Amino acid sequence: MDRGSLVGSPQRQSGVRISIIGCGWLGTALAGVWQARGQHELLVTTTRPERLAELQALGLQARLLRGGDTAAMADALAEAEVVVLTLAPGGDRQVDADAYASTYLPTCRSLLELLPQLPLLRQIIYTSSCGVYGDAGGDWIDESTPPQPRDDHAAVLLQTEALLGQTAQPVALLRLGALHGPGRELAPRLARLAGSRRPGDGSTWSNWIHRDDAVAAIDRVLESGFSGTLNVVDGQPVTLRQLMDRVCSSQGLEPVQWTGGSEQTPAANRRIRNTGLLALGVPKPRNVAGPTAQA
Question: Would the pLDDT of 89 be above 90?
Answer without folding.
Answer: no
